[in-house]
# Entry
Amino acid sequence: MRPTFILPLICVVCLISVGPGCTARYTADWSSLDSRPLPQWYDEAKVGIFVHWGVFSVPAFGQFSEWFWYWWKSKRAPEVEFMQKNYPPGFQYADFAPQFHAEFFNPDDWAEIFQASGARYVVFTTKHHEGFTNWPSAVSWNWNSVDTGPHRNLVGELSAAIRKRSLHLGLYHSLYEFFHPLYLLDRSSGYKTQNFVALKTLPELVDLVMTYKPDLIWSDGDWEAPDTYWNSTQFLAWLYNDSPVKDVVVTNDRWGKGCYCKHGGYFNCADRYSPGTLPDHKWEKCMSIDTKSWGYRRNMKLSEVMDLPSIIQDMVYVVAMGGNYLLNIGPMADGMIAPVFEERLRGLGAWLGINGEAIYATKIWRVQRENSTVTVWYTAKNKTVYAIMLGWPPKQQLHLNTPKWTAATKVTLLDYPNVPLKWAPVTPTSGLVILMPAMPPSAGNAWCLKLEGVL
# Structure
C-alpha cells in the first residue's frame, strides 16, 4: 500500500509558499506535464558543465568510479583487488567519508573556470547513488557533507558562487540509492510500498527546490522503479505550478523506468546520447572529458581524456542537431579540478569566445551537415547561417553546395569579422566557392563562417 502522506507533503509546501489551496495549472499526469513549454533560457544556453563529486571521489578508482561502492560490493575484480591491496580488513565504504576533506575547495575558483569555459549553466551533484548528500539534508543524518567529511555545505557554497557569475544553476539528484534500507525494502515489496520515497526522496527534492531555487533539476537513478513509485508526476506538478522556480525551472526525462526519451522537460535518453537523425524534441548530450568515468579517477590516463578538437567536434554536432551539450568533470576529493580538465575547459571557452555566436541561441537549419570539402555543420540565427568547419580546407578553397546565394550574400570568417571573403557561385542558383584567408590558429581545429543573405 502507498503511504497517503506523500501528496500532502507537497501540498503543505504549496500552502506555505503560495497560500491557500494546491490547485495546479498542470495536472499530475504526463499528458499535461509534457505540454509545458520549455523555458527559453535553456535552449539559448547550449553549453553546460556537469560536476560529479562525492565520497566516491576519495577512492577515485576504476571505470565509472562514481559506482565504486556498488562495484566493490558486487565483487567486481578490480575494485576488490584495489581494496585488498590498499585498505585494512573490515574497512567500510562509510570510512571513506571522513577522508573527503575538500580542503582546497574554493567555489569562486570553480565558478571562474566554469565561466571561462563558455558554459551558460552548471549541473552539480547534490547526491549520487551512494546517497551521500553534498548539503545538510535533514533526512541523511551523518551521511552528508556538513556532518562528516568537509563539514561544509558544498551545494550552498557553489550555488552562490555560480550565481555571482550569472550562470544558471542546475542540481543533479539521484532518485534511488544503492543500499538504503528503506529503498531495499520497497524494492523487495515489488514497489508496492513507498517508504523511501516518502521519507527520503521527496523531502530531499522539495528541500533542494525551496532552499537553492535551481534553474534546472537533473534527475537520475530512475531505471529500476516506475514513475508511479517515485510519485514523479505529483512532484513535477508542484514544481511547475507552485514552487518558487515554477516559471524558470527546466527538468530532464529520468523520472522512472520507461520515462526517458518519452516524458519530462528535455530528453537525455541514454548517457552520451548521440542521435543519428534529427530529434523532434529538445535534447541534451552529457559527455565526460574522462571517457572512462564521470567521477574522478586517480588511475586516469591521458589517452583516455578527450582532447580539445574532439570536445568541440562533439559540441558542434550536438548544437547543429538541436541539442545542448553538458560536459562533465570529476573534481578530486581535496576540491581541486585536475589541470587537464581545466585546460580543456579554458580551451573550449577560448574557442567559444571567437565562435560563440554560431552556438548560443542558434536554431537548426534546413540542412545540418555536408562534406563537400571538409565536414561542415550548419546552425542558424534569425536570417544568418553559420557554417562550422571541422578542419581547414585544402588549397584555401571551401565548396559549400547547400546554401542558396543571393545578390546580398556576404561571407566572413568569425576570426576576422570585418573582412568580407571573396566567393563565387557553384551554380546559377546555389552553392558557394569561398576563397579562404590565411589560416588563423585554432587549438580546436575548427573555424566558423558567417553567411549572410543566403537561403
Remarks:
- Residues 195-212 form the longest helix (18 residues).
- Confidence is low (pLDDT under 50) at residues 1-8, 12-24.
- The two ends are 60 Å apart (CA to CA).
- The first strand starts at residue 47 and ends at 51.
